[in-house]
Design a protein that fits this description.
With 507 residues, the chain is α/β, with parallel strands linked by helices. Helix content is 43%, strand content 13%. Strands 8-7-6-9-10-11-12-13 form an eight-stranded mixed beta sheet, with helices on both faces. A five-stranded antiparallel beta sheet has the order 4-3-2-1-5, covered by helices on one side. Helix 7 links the parallel strand 6 and strand 7. The protein is globular. About 24% of the residues have low confidence.
């Protein structure tokens, strides 16, 4: 998605056409987190419709420039709702002082069915055929077919729009299930709904109680001494400025290797205690994610889960505040493909470059610089990050368009999760049967099952010591995301489902 040339940008006034409805005036906006992007591999934009204030994802092929098609699409439309929408978009153009929009493509002649349905909807006749059409369109959206949007049409009354449930996770909503969502007045997603000046907005959003953040344990590793593996790589560090958001178990090891290989790194973490160790090791500190973006050419992010990843991008003082055509953003958090595509869409709409870089390995591999990096997205950004990937891992693979790396990572994580669950179950069975677990491990080393992961975890079981290399909740999260992907693709995953229950119980 990030590598595609998009015709429209944030703030562009447009005519947006949804299946079952005639074109309606709207504006391209950043997608609110509650409005899920459909799993459709086409250029799409989130549109906020004037008059109704509803949101929907619309394919570019169903959008036209407002000014160019204004006369064609407003002809003979005298309804009160359309008049209100036209008045609002004209006011928007005046207030924002936008130049006249001109987009490619020839005007498309509206068919009579579109015209008659549009007039029926505006007149409030509410006949059964119209209601049936809406239901059919809704069913098609839920199946991710054809319509290319996640909200009901612009003719739906805003007073009846469904509101998102509080605390709902993004993955729990199916593409197309949110109907005509209306956002809180405090949200800044739509330029129609706020008029804060940028300077004032930045000041109000900046944290004012950084010292009140909860304390965090120190990193607990030598940040200055390079590993033998890193010294053997002979890395030629890029002269670009790099940022890193998140200094957890994996992030700490990766930043250590970036610093020891000669890269310029600016770091941010939710808790400041860890940051001090990295500043002493040569990193720069930033107060917010947006400060990191402003300071750096390319920024990496590695946090706990998809929700945290989206909060970094869309939240206050977040990534989007400073993204522009000179910036690159690399998402290393283990996320699902839908989340990655949402972030890619938002980054590309502001002109930035985007990569998803999923990592295979655990704490020790992150510290040694022997991770496997699975990358998808903007190829030029992948090339610019080569020295960083070389410092972080032993191999990096470019897998094409956004979403492929996330899918590959979840496939591998489901395999690992099932395998480790089988190991634990087998060792428990051996113990109950009166066998020595160390004997089981010695025999296992001589078989085709001999691999570092099984031997390492097997020794941990025998010794009864379980240092955290990957938090249990993160593995269970990946299994849940794998099951969700299987549901979307209608692929049965009985072993993954069973392993997921084991991890849930252990957690």
């Amino acid at each position: 998605m990030s590598s595609e040339q998009l015709k429209f940008r944030i703030g562009d006034p447009v005519w947006a056409k949804m299946k079952g409805f005639s074109p309606w005036p709207g504006v391209v906006v950043l997608p609110p987190s509650e409005v899920k992007r459909p799993a459709i591999k086409k250029a799409m934009h989130c549109v906020n419709f004037f008059g109704t204030k509803d949101y929907a994802w619309i394919e570019e092929t169903s959008m036209k420039g407002y000014e160019e098609y204004k006369d064609t699409l407003t002809k003979d439309k005298k309804s009160k709702a359309m008049a209100q929408a036209i008045a609002e978009i004209e006011k928007y153009l005046v207030d924002r002082e936008l130049p006249g929009q001109s987009t490619g493509g020839s005007p498309r002649k509206l068919d009579q069915d579109d015209e008659s349905e549009f007039d029926a909807l505006l007149s409030g006749s509410g006949d059964k055929s119209t209601k049936k059409s809406k239901k059919e369109v809704g069913r098609k959206r839920n199946a991710s077919e054809g319509s290319g949007s996640t909200a009901s049409g612009p003719a739906t009354s805003s007073s009846t729009a469904k509101k998102p449930r509080q605390g709902r996770q993004p993955k729990e909503s199916k593409a197309g299930s949110a109907s005509a969502m209306k956002m809180d007045e405090e949200r800044d997603a739509s330029p129609v709904q706020y008029s804060k000046k940028p300077s004032v907005s930045n000041l109000l959003d900046r944290p004012n109680a950084l010292s009140a953040r909860p304390s965090s344990p120190t990193v607990g590793m030598d940040l200055v001494t390079s590993s033998q593996t890193l010294r053997e790589k002979d890395i030629q560090a890029s002269k670009l400025n790099f940022g890193f958001l998140g200094l957890g178990i994996m992030g700490s090891g990766m930043v250590k290797n970036l610093l020891n290989s000669g890269h310029n790194v600016t770091v941010w973490n939710r808790t400041t205690e860890k940051v001090k160790d990295f500043v002493e090791a040569g990193a720069k500190e930033a107060l917010t994610p947006s400060d990191v973006i402003a300071e750096c050419d390319i920024t990496f992010s590695c946090v706990s889960d998809p929700q945290s990843a989206k909060e970094l991008v869309f939240g206050n003082c977040g990534v989007l505040q400073e993204i522009n055509t000179t910036k690159g953003y690399v998402e290393m958090t283990s996320v699902d493909s839908d989340t990655s595509q949402d972030i890619a869409e938002a980054i590309s709409l502001k002109g930035g470059r985007y990569l998803e870089a999923q990592i295979q390995g655990s704490k020790s591999q992150a510290q040694d610089g022997t991770l496997v990096v699975l990358v998808a997205g903007d190829r030029s950004l992948f090339d610019d990050c080569q020295s960083c990937f070389q410092a972080m891992g032993k191999n990096s693979f470019y897998l094409g368009e956004v979403g492929n790396a996330s899918k590959m990572n979840l496939v591998l994580q489901s395999m690992i999760g099932v395998t480790l669950a089988g190991l634990a179950e087998g060792m428990a069975l051996a113990d109950r049967a009166g066998l020595q677990q160390k004997d089981v491990l010695e025999v296992l080393e001589l078989t085709g099952l001999n691999c570092p992961a099984l031997l390492q975890k097997g020794k941990a079981i025998i010794e009864g010591g379980f240092p955290t290399h990957q938090p249990l909740q993160h593995m269970q999260k990946d299994l849940k995301l794998s099951l969700n992907m299987g549901d979307q693709l209608e692929q049965p995953l009985p072993l993954t489902a069973s392993a997921n229950e084991v991890y849930k119980h252990a957690k």
